[in-house]
Design goal:
Helix Hairpins; 2 domains; three-stranded mixed beta sheet; 15 strands; alpha+beta
Length: 414
């Protein structure tokens, strides 16, 4: 979330940035609510001051009936005012939470079509083999029984495809460890406080992507970014300990609401998959450099796999609420003859940290909010699509990329 003082002092910038992202926010109303809060807070503080004065006057002597009555009246009045203040603060914070992060100056303006290609790697293949047909014919993938057990878009991986997923995971893990990340397994559920702190505010109600646990203050995570964001919630980190780099491995659960019309065949878009996620807590002045570092690690991983891709600087209208800037990596699909998203990495500045109250203590003793960043190392279901499309052969075999062979008993094909 944004700081209310920043919103107050940058009303046009906040409104313009929200509009570019496609969010309908009323900055003027937020300012009016804060004005009301300040006025009411001043009244409450004056009543508290007078209450304390009366309490002091009552000590060590017999208070007058008038003083006793005034004390009772203030207590009753203060109770109502404090309740009103609490409700007003809740309303104000809910409105602030709907305001997305400010975009960086180098973010392209406009919708998805305005995102800018900034790098291309590898040679595009002119044909490939459909991953779903190939994997199903080899009895490696079972959507029918997945649907029988859990519903549409759930699946079983079997045999060599399950082993290939494990190889991809081990390869990705080796890469992030090589780059200094601390490996973590994380909870597959988070509380509403953490979920809201991540700032995943859908533009419309039909885009909500989370599965909620009925009767519990819990939701299934859509990405390890969620529990990693909450890892240092309500903590103050010493400056000399930053940056902190974590790699979280988890299952991910998504309704995939609002994605109709996008490529959904087979494993590309499912309700549950495993993912290895990179996450960083850092000083504000470090975040732009670390954003480039995370992108470079993603490129290192996919170049190692020999996959053609391009890097996109995502336009404002396609950015989520938390990100000030985001890069997408899109692999070249030889089956569909187009680029399709495989990873992303975002700089969320202090937007998430402010919401979960994660701060840094500077060497001079001052305290401020950290910056947070995230990036996908390996989204395993989608990675299987990429490998099958690029390495399946017409004779029904799958060539194993060289970097994965150590994790598959050095087999060259399966």
């Amino acid at each position: 979330m944004l700081d209310i003082n920043f919103i107050r002092n940058n009303q046009k910038k906040v409104a313009d940035s929200a509009r570019e992202k496609g969010y309908d926010v009323n900055v003027n109303h937020v300012i009016k609510l804060d004005d009301q809060r300040k006025t009411l807070l001043q009244t409450v503080e004056e009543k508290r001051r007078r209450r304390n004065e009366i309490a002091n006057q009552m000590k060590g002597g017999k208070p007058s009936p008038e003083l006793i009555k005034e004390g009772k009246d203030i207590k009753t009045e203060l109770s109502g005012l404090e309740s009103e203040l609490s409700e007003l603060e809740t309303t104000l914070n809910s409105h602030i939470a709907r305001i997305p992060n400010i975009i960086f100056d180098d973010v392209p303006l406009g919708g998805e079509e305005c995102s800018k290609e900034i790098k291309v790697f590898g040679e595009k293949k002119k044909e490939g083999i459909d991953h779903l047909d190939f994997a199903t014919s080899r009895d490696w993938l079972d959507f029918e029984r997945g649907a029988k057990v859990a519903g549409a878009k759930f699946y079983y991986l079997k045999g060599n495809l399950a082993l290939l997923e494990n190889a991809l995971y081990q390869y990705g893990l080796s890469k992030v460890l090589e780059h200094g990340f601390t490996f973590m397994t994380v909870p597959d559920m988070v509380s509403s406080k953490v979920l809201e702190g991540c700032g995943f505010n859908p533009r419309t109600s039909d885009q909500s992507d989370e599965y909620y646990i009925e009767g519990e203050d819990l939701a299934m995570i859509a990405t390890a970014e969620m529990p990693l964001t909450g890892y240092h919630m309500d903590e103050i980190i010493d400056e000399n300990k930053l940056p902190l780099f974590y790699a979280g491995y988890s299952a991910c659960f998504r309704k995939e609401a609002g994605t109709y019309g996008k490529y959904t065949r087979g494993l590309f878009r499912v309700h549950q998959f495993n993912k290895l996620e990179m996450y960083a807590f850092c000083l504000p002045e470090q975040s732009k450099e670390i954003h480039e570092k995370i992108l470079a690690i993603e490129e290192d991983i996919w170049q190692g796999l020999g996959i053609p891709y391009r890097i996109i600087n995502i336009a404002a209208g396609d950015l989520g609420a938390p990100a000030a800037k985001k890069y997408d990596m899109e692999y070249w699909s030889p089956v569909n003859q187009k680029y399709q998203e495989i990873t992303s990495c975002s700089n969320c500045t202090d937007f998430q940290a402010r919401a979960v109250n994660c701060r840094v203590r500077r060497k001079d003793g001052t305290i401020e909010f950290v910056h947070t960043l995230n990036g996908t190392a390996i989204p395993l279901a989608r990675a299987l699509v990429v490998i099958l499309e690029n390495y399946a052969t017409e004779d029904g075999k799958l060539k194993v990329p060289e970097v994965l062979r150590p994790y598959l008993n050095n087999r060259e094909e399966i």
